[in-house]
Structures are given as C-alpha cells and as structure tokens.
UniProtKB/TrEMBL annotation:
The lineage of its organism: Bacteria, Bacillati, Bacillota, Bacilli, Bacillales. This is DUF4931 domain-containing protein. InterPro entries: DUF4931 (IPR046322), DUF4931_C (IPR049285), GalT_short (IPR012361), HIT-like_sf (IPR036265). Residues 8-131, 135-253 form the DUF4931 domain.
C-alpha cells in the first residue's frame, strides 16, 4: 500500500496557544466574542474554522463543545451530550458527502498525553485533500468483547485486535440515523478511563470512522506509546481483557461478575 504523510506547517504550529500544560495561558475558546470564521452556532456549541491550520492540503475546523472551560465529555448531562453528537456527526458527514475532500476525519484530544494543545473541551473535523484515511482501516480493529449492545442498535466492545495496542473501546451504530446509546456508550468509556481505569489515566483520544454504512468511535486511553509499536508497528494485546469487560459491565450496567 502506498504510504501517505500529512505535512505539518511548523511556522504556524509555533504560534499555536497551549493551555493544557500552561495553566496560566489565556484560553482562546473562552473569549467567545473574539472568535472569527464561525460556521455554525448551536448554543453553547460552536463550529468554526481553525485559526491555526497546521496541516497542509487540508480544511481544518474546530468544534467547541461547551462554554465551560472545565467541562468534560465524561460528565455532560444527557441533553447536552446528545445535542453535541448530533451536531458533530451531522457536520462531519455533510462535509464528507460534499465530495470536496478525499476523506474527512473527526476526532477528539483530551489531556496532556493526547497530542492536543488546548484544554477547553473541543473536537476537530478535518477535510483531507489527498489522503483517504479509510485505506489504513482494517475492520478487525473494531472486533472485541461485547460489553453492551442494543437489539438493532449501538454496540459497545473492548478491542481484541487493537489498532495501536492494549486497551481500545469501540462503539458502533448504523449511519441511517443518530442513536442515543451510541453517545452514552462513548461517554461511559471515557468516564471509565478517567475514573476506574486500573492504571492512572488523565488523557484519551476519540476517533470516528465511517465505514460500509456504519459509524464507529474508538476511544483510546493515552499513555507513553510502547516502543514496540513505534519501532515495529507491533500492537500488544493484554491478558486481562475479559476482566476489564466484566468490570465495565458491573460498574455501568449492573451485570454481576462471573466467578
């Protein structure tokens, strides 16, 4: 398969504000009256063009999730949770359907190990001119131990063939219509990572995929990446996946653990 690389503009990157580690830095997303290039507003949600488009040959937008700088996906009230994901998924799929871009990616960074720079809760929707992200997607990376599922509805699993390695949570639904349990399962995965994970975790990513009529979200707790993956592309699978799946079922779905 032909390798593809995104090109990063370092001169723009050097100007980006950073408020995840630098707690004294002013948050650009809190200064809502100063925001420019706004695409759509659904209070308190704002979609706008990225002021620092570091990726070349790409159309970059930012989805500000809330007017609360300390808000978090893991604790959003259900009404706001569904409003946010209806809004985000609609704009992502609309940009994809426009046919302007070869592919459109939708993702979220949270925490100091996530690769993000702004602490204020937000996601990004990026149209790629020359790269089709789906060429790097293997369907088996969404396979896993079932934690919860709805009949003819969303499914929540723990990857048995993770993309990068160790623990990755998958949520899937059909693209026919938005289903509320999709966002609720995603919220549970994030809440578990931040509050019940067996290793202290303060960072995660959420990646969305639109493949063969289905929408997938992959929720990945972030730690220092294993050198076996960095150097050789070898994902590792831990030996306690069954335990973790049962633990999630016990905590969030009141399913007794097996002996």
């Amino acid at each position: 398969m032909e390798m593809k690389h995104l090109h990063f503009n370092t001169s723009i990157g050097a100007k980006k504000p950073e408020s995840i580690r630098n707690k004294e830095a002013a948050c650009p997303f809190c200064a809502r009256d100063e925001l420019t290039n706004i695409i759509e507003v659904d209070e308190p949600i704002i979609l706008l063009k990225n002021k620092y488009p570091v990726l070349e040959n790409a159309y970059q937008t930012v989805l500000i999730e809330s007017d609360d700088c300390h808000g978090d996906l893991s604790t959003y009230p259900k009404e706001h949770l569904h409003k946010l994901f209806r809004f985000g998924i609609e704009h992502w799929l609309d940009l994809e359907a426009s046919g302007i871009y070869r592919s459109v990616i939708f993702f979220k960074n949270h925490g100091p190990l996530s690769g993000g720079s702004i602490a204020h809760p937000h996601m990004q929707i990026v149209g790629l001119d020359d790269i089709d992200y789906k060429e790097t997607v293997d369907p088996e990376m969404f396979e896993g131990i079932v934690i919860a599922e709805e009949e003819n509805g969303p499914r929540f699993t723990l990857s048995t063939k993770p993309r990068v390695g160790f623990y990755e949570f998958n949520i899937e639904m059909t693209d026919a219509c938005y289903q509320e349990r999709f966002a609720e399962y995603l919220q549970i995965a994030v809440h578990y990572i931040l509050n019940h994970f067996p290793f202290k975790a303060n960072s995660y990513n959420v990646f969305f995929y639109h493949i063969n009529g289905n929408i997938y979200a992959k929720v990945v707790p972030r730690f220092v990446t294993t050198p076996l993956y960095i150097g050789y592309g070898l994902p590792q699978v831990p030996n306690n996946l069954e335990w973790m799946a049962e633990e999630l079922s016990r905590i969030y779905f009141n399913v007794p653990q097996t002996v």
